Amino acid sequence: MADASAVEPGFIAPPRPEPSPLPRRHDPARHALAIFISILATVVGLIFLAWLVLFVTKGRFLKHTFERYASSYSGRTVKVAGDFNLYFDPFATKFLAEGLTVSNPAWASKPNMFQSKLIDTRIATMSLIFGDKKRVNWINLIDGDVDLEWDARHRNNTWTFGPGAPLTMPLIERAAIDGTTLRYRDPQMQVKADIAFQQVKAVGNRIDTAIRFSGDGSMRGIPFTLSGSQTSPNDLIAGGRNQFALHVDGARSHIDVSGTLPGATVIEGADLTVGVRGQNLRNLFDLAGIAVPDTRAYRLRAHMTKLGYDYRFTRIVGNYGNSDLSGALTVTIPPAREGDDGRMKVVADLKSRLVDMVDIGPFIGFEPNALATKGATAAVKQDAGYPRILPDAPLRVDALKAFDAKVTYRVADVRQKFVPVSNILLGLDLDHALLKLSPLNFDMAGGHVESDIAINARTPAVVTDYDIRMSPTPMGKLLARFGVAELGTTGTIKARIKMHGTGNTLRDSLATSNGRIAIVLPKGTFWTKYVQLSEFDVGVFVQKLFENKLKKPVEVNCGLIGFTVRDGIAAADPILIDTDKNVMTAKGGFSFKDELMSLAFRADAKKISLFSGQSPIGIRGHFAQPAIQIVTPQLLTRVGAAVALGVVATPFASLLAFVDPGDAKAAACGPILAGANAAAQRTVKGDPRKDIGRGKSADVKEQKSKPFIRF
Known about the structure:
The protein has 711 residues and is of the alpha+beta class. It contains 13 helices and 39 strands. The strands form four sheets. The chain has a 29-stranded mixed β-sheet that branches. Strands 2, 3, 6, 7, 11 and 12 form a six-stranded mixed β-sheet that branches. A two-stranded antiparallel ribbon has the order 9-10. The chain is elongated and about 170 Å long. 28% of the residues are buried.
């Protein structure tokens, strides 16, 4: 074995080889991060470079690019006549334009929707990029003119751009406005308004000087003026709300609006108080094209807010004339769409605790102030020398065609001296010029009246259908003012009026009407306080005239006062009342055309009666001035016979001329209580009656031609 010492001297051993290094592992995450950082640094650098370029150049070179993209997006021509700035920073975007104009659609009456001498703004960058509502930190507007218009069909407006995107006003934090005007036109609503804003300067988050504005205009041809202010617009970012005040004078009315707005340019969700006062509530609603009856002086107050297309008036309180009013009302003004004319609609739920009868007069066409000062005589008008009481105020057909409505009105009590009326319930439904008053119900003198009235104004000739029903009502309460004693009167009255007429006034409608009127008297007693006219027996009348009272009430078995109406002429069909002593009948009738009455009542005794003239008792004259005739030619003939007998015989013999033989045929009550016409009426033996009117217009004319002597 060789030894190391045996190696030759001078020999150097080669070095031992180094071990091979292990291969390096690849890290994808680090590689991706490095790439991302590189890209981010590049983007940031580019952004910074772009910002630096924009900051240095103020973005002036983007002027034509802005015009091109803004015009393309809005579908309008957008131009900047002077200097232009547009650049960003992390917190606010700077925008400045001198001579900025935004054109109107071709149909508009003005060339530009917006134009200004200068607009200088700072817009919150994050809200500009991500927010639905843009926030303007600062705006300086000089000599701005805004034109807001609707087209004639109310389907397009000047502030909706591109594919139906409406202009949404931004939230404005600070502002300085000088020489700015706003013009508004709505042909469908017939609204014109021109408003000028006074100079406004603002510092910090609170405007120290109120935004004040004033202007004038017209609505449906009625001029108005307005003025107002936004007294303390707060920093909206902190959730502040803007105090708002507005005063409008027009249509002989005064409107005051005050409260808060969510923002200086935001009405949606506003919390406002509205006060209105004037001489006639109709004048106020005329501004909106809503037809309401005339009223006396009024004063109302309500809470108002706007939600979508709805203008809601809640907590209404106030009065018209001597009547109180409360409730809620909503006016909806939707935009017109295909197949829909965008009709305005009024929905209301109103109440009154006490209504003065004078204030109800205008609802059927009477002038309220005249009624208040002159009483019922104010309802009477002279026409060709004759008194007329049926109202001739025309139905406002054009106004009824402009809107729809659904109204409920409740009245607890009515102040008047004729017949006690309470608990009125009125349901009003207006649908494309078809007006329905259903229900129209109320309590009257212990009874109840239900009504359904339809007025169709869709055709040139306005058509009205009346259906009025009265449940059994105590005569003692109903006729108390006319001398009927409530104590001792057990009789009741029930009635129905069903007619159909044409005409745009109540007078014309009734003058052309056809239908039936039936008043039924079931079995009961009837007692007067003063003179006895209930049985139309002249002898008893004279007797009671001196006694001034009845010893016992009249027993009514059944009765029917019926009229058939043809072309405005109501003829008795029949008038037949059966009492314990007499059978009363009447012929003739009345006319809605000239308001003349011509009725002849007579009573035939069932048993022999002295002091019974048995001549017709006439009711003549006009609705406004009726006259009762007691002395008739027939009675004078009998008086003449009495005088003759007294001369040739003895004074006692003259009484024979006034003796009634008592041959009246009692009436069958079945047809009477059913309200049947004359052809169905029978005696108690079943024989057809021949002593009653047959519902013919000729009967009325015949009675008119007979001479009556006024008593």
